[in-house]
Amino acid sequence: KADPTLGKQLFYVSPETSFIHPRGHERGWSQIAENFYGTTMGKTFSKRTLKLDAPPAIHVYGNAAVAEFDWHFTAVRRDNGQTQHTTGRESQVWAKIPNTGWRIVHVHYSGPAKTGVGEGY
């Protein structure tokens, strides 16, 4: 289940939190909860599995940190029961929020790098 309640434990619940993904750019926790968790994941797929290819690289800068990693995603589409498989890369910006702790303030994910001539621009 795509559960924004679980996401709310990781994300900073704020209008400033953002999430860039191949199907959109969500600004604020309410858009992330509704559009990414609710529509992109919840309404599109009946089952999802996300696995990291390796442990994330984590860089800490005082009260901020960046996590970067590659992943593969396997899911079952609700509309036709077909299995969908994608790979990608992701960076997450975390901030240490007073009285709250570490929370995600920004996510950016995309597909694999395109390295062919004329690709990826």
Care to give the gist of this entry?
This is Nuclear transport factor 2 family protein. The chain has 121 residues and is an alpha+beta fold.
CATH architectural category = Roll
Helix count from the secondary structure assignment: 2
Gap between N and C termini: 35 Å
**Tell me, what is the CATH class?**
Alpha Beta
Query: What is the radius of gyration?
Result: 15 Å
Work out the number of β strands. Answer: 7
InterPro entries: DUF4440, NTF2-like_dom_sf
Protein name: Nuclear transport factor 2 family protein
Domain DUF4440: 14-104
Organism: Salmonella enterica
Fold and architecture overview:
- Strand 1 and strand 2 form a beta hairpin.
- The N and C termini lie far apart (35 Å).
- The protein has a single domain, classed as Nuclear Transport Factor 2, Chain: A, CATH 3.10.450.
- It is globular.
- By secondary structure, it is α+β, with helices and mostly antiparallel strands.
- It has two helices and seven strands, in the order αββαβββββ.
- Strands 1, 2, 3, 4, 5, 6 and 7 form a seven-stranded mixed β-sheet that branches.
- Helix content is 16%, strand content 50%.
